[in-house]
Amino acid sequence: MDGRALDRDGVQRAILGEPDAAPWALYDAAGRAVRTLVHEKHTAGYHTAVWNGTDAQGRNVPSGIYFIRFKTDDYDRIEKAVLLK
Q1: How far apart are CA 19 and CA 31, in angstroms?
Q2: How far is CA 38 from CA 9, 25, 85, in A?
Q3: Quick one: how many helices (H) and strands (E) in the chain?
Q4: Greater confidence, 57 or 17?
Q5: Angle at CA 75, nearest 5°, toward 13 and 68?
Q6: Radius of gyration over alpha carbons of the chain, in Å?
Q7: 34, 42, 55, 52: which is closest to 14 by C-alpha?
Q8: Distance of alpha carbon 4 from the chain centroid
């Protein structure tokens, strides 16, 4: 997955090779934490997360470039996402 356009009901997808707790954390272009999209144990396979364009306090965030970090014990990946309103 590389840069994705996310609308107000943005969806991000990932495939896990094995069961793991895989937090999906969202950051703005300045590297500030915006919110955690997912923080739970997943089974192996295909998973999605929906982001409604709000921060951890439920406030709307502006259109722009964001980064989603997928991290497990043995995997760490950052994907670019674009929020368009």
Answers
A1: 28
A2: 15, 7, 22
A3: 0, 9
A4: 57
A5: 40
A6: 12
A7: 42
A8: 11
Pick the CATH number of 4-83 from 3.40.630.30, 1.10.10.10, 2.60.40.4070, 3.50.50.60: 2.60.40.4070
**Least confident segment among 5-19, 25-39, 64-78:** 5-19
Distance (Å) of CA 51 to CA 12, 45, 55, 61, 74: 8, 20, 9, 11, 25
Whose tokens are 């300045």? That residue is 30
Q: How many residues does the chain have?
A: 85
Single-letter code of the amino acid located at 19: P
User: Is residue 14 a contact partner of residue 81, using CB atoms and an 8 Å limit?
Assistant: no
